[in-house]
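Sat 14:20. Reprocessing the chain from the morning session after the first attempt stalled halfway. Input below, unchanged.
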Amino acid sequence: MQEDIIRAVLQKKDTLALLPTGGGKSVCFQVPVMAMDGICIVVSPLIALIKDQVEQLKKRGIPVLAVYSGMHYLEVKKTLQNAAFGNYKFLYLSPERLETDLFLEFLPAIKPCLIAVDEAHCISQWGYDFRPPYLRINNLRQELPGVPVIALTASATKTVQDDICEKLHFDKNALRFQQSFERANLSYSIFSPAAKETKLLEVLNNVKGTAIVYCKSRKHTQQVAGLLTMKGLSADYYHAGLSAQERTTKQESWINNQTRVMVCTNAFGMGIDKPDVRVVVHFDMPDCLENYYQEAGRAGRDGKRAYAVLFFQPNELTDMMQLLAIRYPSAEQIKKIYTALMNHLQVAAGGGEGNSYDFDMAVFAQRFKLNILEATYGIHALAQQEILSFNEIFFRPSTVMFTTSKNDLVDFEQQHPELEPIIKALLRSYEGIFDFTTTVYEGLLAKFLKADKEQVIVLLKKLHQYGIIQYLPPTDKPQVYLIKSRMYSDDFKIDALALALRKEQHEKRIMAITGYINDSQSCRSNMLADYFGAPHGSKCRICDNCINQIQKDLSAAEFEQLYNQILSHVKEEAIDVNSLIKKLRPGTDNHIWQAIQYLQAEELIIQDQEGFIKMKM
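Finished this time. Tokens:
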């Protein structure tokens, strides 16, 4: 549907595009923008997603800009100036940036031709990944009347689709495109093994090639990766608690096939487009079909056979329902967590708005004797109410600001000639650094000075100790950002009805994935399509349920006989399907077709466009 979507955008129509994971959503707005005058504003929720798309566009020689958390005022200002007055085609933004005074100041000069909303399900409070900052996009529409919007997502139910269109103020001529959710090459299977570890080893030994194994806890990722390594497999683990450098190193090793199996939480995968993943295993039961479909869809993007395998044990279904009470704490519990958090951050009543704080969830929970899960979900609830924001994967680069006068700086250089080169390097490399806090990169300074990066860090720390600059080294600690000042105890208010409705929607999602797991008859590909309200055709023939049905309909002896007969007929030369069926009679046509379809699914035979069946080379 890419061409139809592109044409809709070129006709300046509001457009909702639902394409499966790996279905090429980015092309649907990137291609038309290259044929339009002006720049496209792309709203995307994760820095990893933004960086990946920016890198891909730059490789193709397409001028692109990005603004995200961790950038400082002068960098942001320079980027927005370039967007307004330079020859750029795309400006990627995190949703939090949309209502900043600086962005709104430059917006009239930027003159966008299109607004692209990536991961659009984040705008719906009925979605599985609701992010309140996405609601600010509709304010952007008021500032830009007549500028069309394209919203893109891989996983949204009919309710969420309708909510996206409403929240983005789509007009009556808006178009909605929904591609089939079928992945002809992806086989879905579910197992309830006595020992998950043993079954995982069996799967990885049977399916060669790159793999992802999703676990629910950080601790579990380390345990499973350790087990695989002990068994001689090349495996590593990944979760949000690792440093930025560790995450980057592990990710690149996996992408470059130096690591075969990545055992991870759902912090891994967004923004990563590796086409040759042969198997995705959900070691633990996923929270909902939306997450499951997105994560399983990372397998087989190259179109070759791939497998999505889900393990579960009956107690996991019970545990999910029990977790609901913790995941959606009461208003009283949220208030208790909020008060504890403000005390922990030492924020006075009426203050704190706009401030950001390093934050360790484990230390906080231990200090105030809170269940760490309750504390986590309580803080997420506060974020959904837009009282604060919590960024678990955060990277802030180093910053420098001069804290002395220019006259004193001259005197200091005369007294400390050994520090003059680093001072000159700062002043020449970063415009405005004397007046504003500026992001600096120690590696670039090292190249400028022809020195080691470690030496540069030592010199910057010395200048800091002398009071010449304020130097803040990089941090990748989780951050809490206060959107609102600390409320007085009597004034604390949250929308309890919204919390109750989100809990109800989450319960429905649990029931949906429970039904999917327990259904041992229906085609799994069709079940997923039905859940998302997407069109589908015949059964996939390659999921566990379809294969089991084929084997039930035919006895083992009948199946083996047909199997061998078909292979013997097509081994010598291609044969049209009708002639093949005649040769195989008196067997019933239905059974013959099932055997043919099974051999096609196993990629032993293929049928060409003329209907001839032949051995796959």
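The chain is about 45% helix and 15% strand.
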